[in-house]
Protein backbone atom coordinates (compact mmCIF):
# COMPACT_ATOMS: atom_id res chain seq x y z
CA UNK A 1 0.00 0.00 0.00
CA UNK A 2 1.37 3.43 -0.91
CA UNK A 3 1.66 5.57 2.22
CA UNK A 4 3.52 8.55 0.79
CA UNK A 5 4.90 10.16 -2.33
CA UNK A 6 7.36 12.97 -2.76
CA UNK A 7 8.90 14.89 -5.63
CA UNK A 8 11.51 17.60 -5.77
CA UNK A 9 13.17 19.72 -8.46
CA UNK A 10 16.54 21.47 -8.11
CA UNK A 11 18.16 24.15 -10.27
CA UNK A 12 21.69 22.73 -10.65
CA UNK A 13 23.50 26.08 -11.18
CA UNK A 14 21.78 27.63 -8.16
CA UNK A 15 22.58 24.55 -6.06
CA UNK A 16 26.23 24.68 -7.14
CA UNK A 17 26.46 28.39 -6.23
CA UNK A 18 24.95 27.64 -2.81
CA UNK A 19 27.53 24.91 -2.18
CA UNK A 20 30.35 27.25 -3.25
CA UNK A 21 29.05 30.03 -0.99
CA UNK A 22 28.60 27.68 2.00
CA UNK A 23 31.31 25.00 1.76
CA UNK A 24 30.32 23.19 4.98
CA UNK A 25 26.81 22.65 3.65
CA UNK A 26 27.96 19.59 1.69
CA UNK A 27 29.13 17.98 4.96
CA UNK A 28 25.69 18.53 6.49
CA UNK A 29 23.79 17.18 3.48
CA UNK A 30 25.88 14.33 2.07
CA UNK A 31 27.88 11.30 3.16
CA UNK A 32 31.63 11.26 2.46
CA UNK A 33 31.17 9.01 -0.59
CA UNK A 34 28.36 11.18 -1.97
CA UNK A 35 30.51 14.33 -1.68
CA UNK A 36 32.91 12.85 -4.26
CA UNK A 37 30.25 13.21 -6.98
CA UNK A 38 29.83 16.04 -9.48
CA UNK A 39 27.46 18.93 -8.64
CA UNK A 40 24.69 17.70 -10.98
CA UNK A 41 24.71 14.32 -9.19
CA UNK A 42 24.71 16.05 -5.80
CA UNK A 43 21.76 18.15 -6.90
CA UNK A 44 19.84 14.98 -7.85
CA UNK A 45 20.73 13.42 -4.49
CA UNK A 46 19.57 16.54 -2.68
CA UNK A 47 16.29 16.32 -4.61
CA UNK A 48 16.00 12.64 -3.64
CA UNK A 49 16.46 13.43 0.05
CA UNK A 50 13.90 16.25 -0.13
CA UNK A 51 11.46 13.95 -1.96
CA UNK A 52 11.96 11.30 0.73
CA UNK A 53 11.16 13.79 3.48
CA UNK A 54 8.00 14.77 1.60
CA UNK A 55 7.02 11.10 1.19
CA UNK A 56 7.53 10.62 4.95
CA UNK A 57 5.30 13.58 5.69
CA UNK A 58 7.99 15.58 7.49
CA UNK A 59 11.54 15.64 8.75
CA UNK A 60 11.08 14.74 12.44
CA UNK A 61 13.89 12.33 13.37
CA UNK A 62 15.37 12.46 9.88
CA UNK A 63 19.01 13.45 9.39
CA UNK A 64 20.46 14.28 5.98
CA UNK A 65 23.70 12.32 6.36
CA UNK A 66 21.73 9.23 7.45
CA UNK A 67 20.15 9.16 4.00
CA UNK A 68 22.58 7.96 1.37
CA UNK A 69 21.74 7.31 -2.24
CA UNK A 70 23.74 4.32 -3.43
CA UNK A 71 23.53 2.81 -6.89
CA UNK A 72 22.87 -0.89 -7.40
CA UNK A 73 25.14 -2.76 -9.82
CA UNK A 74 22.63 -1.93 -12.57
CA UNK A 75 22.93 1.79 -11.75
CA UNK A 76 19.46 1.98 -10.20
CA UNK A 77 19.52 4.45 -7.29
CA UNK A 78 18.60 3.11 -3.87
CA UNK A 79 18.25 4.62 -0.39
CA UNK A 80 20.64 3.37 2.25
CA UNK A 81 19.28 4.60 5.59
CA UNK A 82 20.92 4.53 9.01
CA UNK A 83 20.46 5.79 12.56
CA UNK A 84 17.29 7.55 13.62
CA UNK A 85 16.25 8.03 9.99
CA UNK A 86 16.06 4.25 9.49
CA UNK A 87 14.14 4.01 12.78
CA UNK A 88 11.62 6.67 11.67
CA UNK A 89 10.99 4.87 8.38
CA UNK A 90 10.53 1.51 10.16
CA UNK A 91 8.27 3.07 12.84
CA UNK A 92 5.99 4.37 10.10
CA UNK A 93 5.59 0.84 8.77
CA UNK A 94 7.39 1.62 5.52
CA UNK A 95 8.81 -1.54 4.00
CA UNK A 96 9.86 -0.31 0.56
CA UNK A 97 11.08 2.99 -0.86
CA UNK A 98 11.08 3.48 -4.62
CA UNK A 99 13.38 6.18 -6.00
CA UNK A 100 13.75 7.68 -9.45
CA UNK A 101 16.24 10.48 -10.17
CA UNK A 102 17.17 12.40 -13.29
CA UNK A 103 19.13 15.43 -14.39
CA UNK A 104 18.97 17.16 -17.73
CA UNK A 105 19.84 20.61 -18.96
CA UNK A 106 20.05 22.60 -15.73
CA UNK A 107 17.53 20.69 -13.60
CA UNK A 108 17.73 17.70 -11.30
CA UNK A 109 14.62 15.89 -10.12
CA UNK A 110 13.70 12.99 -7.89
CA UNK A 111 10.50 11.08 -7.18
CA UNK A 112 9.91 8.80 -4.17
CA UNK A 113 7.12 6.36 -3.41
CA UNK A 114 6.91 4.93 0.12
CA UNK A 115 5.10 1.63 0.58
CA UNK A 116 3.95 -0.17 3.71
CA UNK A 117 2.90 -3.76 4.04
CA UNK A 118 -0.30 -2.72 5.81
CA UNK A 119 -2.48 0.33 6.29
CA UNK A 120 -0.80 3.09 8.32
CA UNK A 121 -2.15 3.70 11.81
CA UNK A 122 -4.96 6.24 11.92
CA UNK A 123 -4.85 9.36 14.02
CA UNK A 124 -7.70 9.61 16.56
CA UNK A 125 -10.36 11.99 15.27
CA UNK A 126 -9.20 11.64 11.65
CA UNK A 127 -11.65 10.21 9.11
CA UNK A 128 -10.55 7.75 6.47
TrEMBL record:
- Tell me its cofactors: Mg(2+)
According to its UniProt record, which protein family does this protein belong to? Belongs to the P-Pant transferase superfamily. AcpS family.
UniProt entry tagged with the keyword Lipid metabolism = yes
Keyword annotations: Cytoplasm, Fatty acid biosynthesis, Fatty acid metabolism, Lipid biosynthesis, Lipid metabolism, Magnesium, Metal-binding, Transferase
Q: Which biological process, per GO, is one annotated for this protein?
A: fatty acid biosynthetic process
- What is the protein's given name? Holo-[acyl-carrier-protein] synthase
Which EC numbers characterise this protein's activity in its record? 2.7.8.7
What is the purpose of this protein?
Transfers the 4'-phosphopantetheine moiety from coenzyme A to a Ser of acyl-carrier-protein.
**Residues annotated as domain 4'-phosphopantetheinyl transferase:** 4-87
Residues that bind Mg(2+), according to the entry? 8, 50
Q: Does the keyword Lipid biosynthesis apply?
A: yes
Q: Which InterPro entries match?
A: 4-PPantetheinyl_Trfase_dom, 4-PPantetheinyl_Trfase_dom_sf, ACPS, Ppantetheine-prot_Trfase_dom
Alphabetical GO CC annotations of the entry are: cytoplasm
Q: Which organism is it from?
A: Microbacterium aurantiacum
**Which reaction is the catalytic activity of this chain?**
apo-[ACP] + CoA = holo-[ACP] + adenosine 3',5'-bisphosphate + H(+)
Where found?
Cytoplasm
Q: Which Pfam families match?
A: ACPS
What's one GO MF term for it? holo-[acyl-carrier-protein] synthase activity
